[in-house]
């Protein structure tokens, strides 16, 4: 974080919660296919996008993330049948809540990437990085003390 | 107006039944405009029951708050029912809890009261500050409150003292009850909740400035949680240490995290009784968050909390056609 601030241009930190079966495999494919994408994303593997508690998102924003991406399987493809549908509902409500509070809801992104879509994954990361860069650093609910 | 005699008579009949442990109602408070909950174990206890527009407290919290001590050897669990005096919103809270399997319908005896709206304690105390004597408040047929303080009688239009949540109440009649006191009342003309008016025009930066001011005042007493009939988890996420979802320091970041968590956990469950807001010592307009979520959940998922005990919960179910514009 310190290094980025010195450079002058804002480089966002993005946390990606990717589901084990589709999005993470998609990221893996992007890597093995040597597709270039911005290095701003830090990936956390979860077993299903339905595992992502909205508090994960809030905690990420508190601890230094400027944006959060949640990646799951395409609707109907979920390894656990309905995890991504449930996650979609939750995130829709979370975005409404953040908007009401005045925290840009665009900081929370959601995407469906299958294991075969390495290229789409790279595109999504580019898009997310560009959008978050535009929004600027997330300072509203950042924790003061880093220990 | 609810007939007090009828209420007491019904409550007496219920509490005399063998399968009822006690009944929770309202009684006159010790000072000013406060009313307090009354627990009646015998028909004599019921004599103190009252019902007036000051009875705002949501009594649906009590069946869940009840402490269940460990049983001695050979002792049997007390499975008798609990009686409750509920208004429209309180009854919806019970429906919601039963829907989530937090309570069993058969364990409750519900006395429903068709509610014409209750007084906001903060408003009336502002109007008549420092009342130490017990005050009697009644509602007449012309939508006015008659307030008797000592020998003087004040007549005040209802709209001035009515709670903000009651002004936009859609369900004044209890959806779930065993005994209904009096006739069902008419639903008020639909009105947008005051905190949501003009929200669309407010730019996002101004909204944060508004909430920042309020969340800085939050002292994290968790009174909102304690007063809420739907915050009944045995271990609240806010109290967990491993993982520690929110840290204990009282600062803007953690206060915001707590308030996001509280509001999110009530999404699709809040029944707009307004208890959280009325108990908040820092005067945070919590209902503005709850109402906004209630409204948007209704628009997005066509879901209204607390109307049908058999319905599935909002986050426990899904529809493949849910909104997905935000997905990249």
Can you offer a commentary on this structure?
- The complex is a heterodimer of chains A (147) and B (328).
- Chain A is α/β, with parallel strands linked by helices.
- Chain A has one domain (13-135): Rossmann fold, CATH 3.40.50.
- Chain A is 42% helix and 16% strand.
- Chain A has helices spanning 2-7, 23-32, 54-62, 83-101, 118-135; strands at residues 14-19, 41-46, 67-72, 108-112.
- In chain A, strands 2-1-3-4 form a four-stranded parallel β-sheet, sandwiched between helices.
- In chain A, 52% of the residues are buried.
- Chain B is α/β, with parallel strands linked by helices and 328 residues long.
- Chain B has one domain.
- Chain B is 31% helix and 14% strand.
- Chain B contains twelve helices and nine strands.
- Chain B has helices spanning 4-16, 43-46, 62-65, 88-99, 121-127, 158-161, 164-167, 204-217, 223-227, 252-265, 275-279, 286-301; strands at residues 20-28, 35-40, 49-50, 81-86, 108-112, 136-139, 144-149, 152-157, 179-180.
- In chain B, the strands form two sheets. In chain B, strands 1, 2, 3, 4, 5 and 9 form a six-stranded mixed β-sheet that branches. Chain B has a three-stranded antiparallel β-sheet with strand order 6-7-8.
- In chain B, helix 4 links the parallel strand 4 and strand 5.
- The longest helix of chain B has 16 residues, at 286-301.
- The termini of chain B are far apart.
